[in-house]
Amino acid sequence: MKKFSWRGLSIVIFICVTAFFLAPLAIPNLPSWWSKHHLKLGLDLRGGMQILLEVDTSELSATDARNAVEQNIKIIRERIDQFGVAEPTIQKLGEKRIMVQLPGVSDYKAAENLIKQTAMLEFKLVAPSEEAKRVIDAIDKNISGNLDKFPALAELAKKDKSIIADTTSTDSLQVGTGIFSSLIRPGEMDFEVQYSDVRLIQELISDTLFAQFVPIGYQLALDKADTENPRADRALYVLNSAPQLTGADLAKAKVEYGSATSTDPRVANKPYISIEMKREGARKFERVTADNVGKRLAIVLDGVVYSAPNIQERIAGGRAQITGRFTATEANELAIVLSTGNLIAPIKPVSTSIIGATLGSDSIRKGTFAGLIGLIIVALFMVIYYKGCGFIADIALVLNVGFILAMLTAFGATLTLPGIAGIILTIGMAVDSNVLIYERIREELDLGKAPRTAVDAGFKRAIITVWDSNLTTLIAAIVLYYLGTGPIRGFAVTLAIGIMSSMFTAIVMVRAILDNFVLTGTKTKLSV
Amino acid sequence: MRIIKNPNIQFVKYRYWAYAFSIVVLLIGLGGIIFNGLNWSIDFTSGIAATLNLKAKDPNVAPLPIDELRSVLAKNGFPDAEIMYVGDEANSVFQIKIKTTGKGSNISAEARSKLIDIIQSEFPEYVKGRDINKEVIEEIYEVGPKVGSELRTQAFWAVLLALIAMIIYIWFRFELTFGLMGILALFHDVLIIVGIFALTGKEITMQIIAALLTIVGYSINDTIVIFDRIREDLKKNRKDPMPVIFNKSINETLSRTIITGGTTFITSACLFFFGGSVIHDFAFAICLGILFGTYSSICVASNLVIDLHQITGKEKKTLQHLTKKKK
Description:
Chain A is an alpha+beta fold and 528 residues long. Chain A has helices spanning 6-26, 32-35, 43-46, 62-83, 108-116, 129-144, 151-166, 195-206, 208-211, 279-291, 328-340, 357-410, 417-446, 451-483, 486-518; strands at residues 40-41, 48-55, 89-93, 97-103, 121-126, 184-186, 191-193, 218-222, 234-240, 245-246, 250-257, 271-277, 296-301, 304-307, 319-322, 347-355, 414-415. With 327 residues, chain B is α+β, with helices and mostly antiparallel strands. In chain B, the strands form two sheets. In chain B, strands 3-4-2-5 form a four-stranded antiparallel β-sheet. Chain B has a two-stranded parallel sheet with strand order 1-6. In chain B, a hairpin with a 7-residue loop joins strand 3 and strand 4 (93-99). The relative contact order of chain B is 0.14.
């Protein structure tokens, strides 16, 4: 039995760790505590979608902003869990970015909607028609002097004038006389907007500059587009801008279906969302309904009016329904979003990528093939060039590749296509340390030294060089890791692990093999 | 087996030929950068890149000609879309790249949905019977304007920081002149590769930036092996003039330089030939980088150290610094 040595121990650990983490790749029926460590493939290899979101914290204080990002991540995670995605990755990037990766998701539109929906639920009173008309008139008046600030409206005004000039068309359908009111006309209960003008109105409503011209205490909102008839006219509401209740008052939301016998065509057989309020919210709701009997209460989600029922009587108990021409999927998503709570601050996607599964498996196949060919050529070369010692280096080379994969598994890192490239490059560079050492040994042998002294001297000299040269490459890999994103990080990680493990195998393992198995006794020849 | 037995090539003596070669290549590269400009990918600007499979399910439908796709996109508001085949023409897989300009933070997202709408409404016969999300769209990648410019700054800092960190390391391990000249040689390598990319009009993607950093890491590795040998030889032969020792060291390490360059080049070449289209340009950059990195390590970096020493006259001081005994 050999004496204990740190070198021996480290080699045993190295091999065991590699074997432990690689086993799940090769052996199918391992116990779950073991097989749960398996190599994760990046989105670029298995397909799926990735969204980079930015949290808009401009309206929050610094501490709130920090919490908002964390809070949003929690909410997004909950939503995705309810949506049912296996192994999603949700992580914070920098100060206010959130990276969401959904492997295997192909219905990217639904996923994107689900995540970014803020679902700001608010209950707001609808201004009575006389009041609403006054608001529209005021907007007309305020805007007429500031047309230059709204190029789209100014253009419209020019066109309008020419139309008015050559026809004496009746203005009876118009609400007012100004340029804004020319876009809307009175409907049964509210104002109506023609489909062709919807976009312009939407832009105006979301424009903060325009909001300054709306009388204080009021706000404009469109109703929800009809999914079955998206080109239909839309209603425009004038709302009291102070919300009576918000999503914070909400306890639960779920999808239900209206009974087939319902007389209301908006409910019959259609999905709707039933909501239940918290105790405090229920009390508020009761008070609001009691105070405003006869008025209409609009249910506003993300600035869009879903419905605006008439308050018939005081409502106790804190239950309400959101109806509004949903499809089943829409209602389902909305219920998830409502019950997981509002995002603390609005988020918007800044970049999205969707990768099909075919492209991914193609990349794996080709990358593996390229890697294998490279590995075989390099290994053959080493054996031909350095004979016996070349074979030892080849053992180290294969262990290196295994170790990189094992470490990626251990750290729970993902293997990406650039990561595969990193491994392949490492195959090329990993032999470098061996080459440095072997060349040195050859030089020493040329000087007429005996194999053992030559190996000692060769290692001693070459190690300095191996350190210096590898550390600089490691610096590049570390910088790459800190400044890179996504797949690039994967590349940096494999490169860094590769550098470290190739140094270990060359300096410790190859040395040990040489010492213990090759340079036994008083050998006079070394196959290098 | 030996590649070259005891080489004694006069690298130092003929260094001005190498300089001349480098300057010519650099000038051509610079010319390319100035006149052609760099083709920044949407990673760094903003826009969308989509890979669409438009092979019709119905075998009677003729394959979609690329020109038709181009003209339809042009008609629908994407006149500058870059379209090319991915792989074989018969597969009808297209890569479409559209750069978006403008300020709105949503322009790229809008362009993406618009592109998909156009494909669905204008080419129903190619989409029919197939799941658009699963079978038609192989990949869509979209970058908003904000992220694009951020990434560009980030990439710039990444390369610069890596270089500075290396100068400091070499300064610490060797001496400042070596650090500076080593890095100068790296700039030389990076600039040549970037120049070649400008000349060939290849896109600078995030992957290419990673490739450049790998080249930087690889080339400095090569250079340091030679520097290390120089340091050692300087200690051994204190009487020989510097250029002689430099030349000796370069020759002594020559077979290692060539072997490592060779094995790394072979694996990158495998990646280039067999790795598939996604990784093609990356492997191309690495292959070039290894060629020029190896060349600059042998012919440029250490020779520049000699020249700078001769200009500044600090040869003696450096010698003392490098050969002083460590504890």
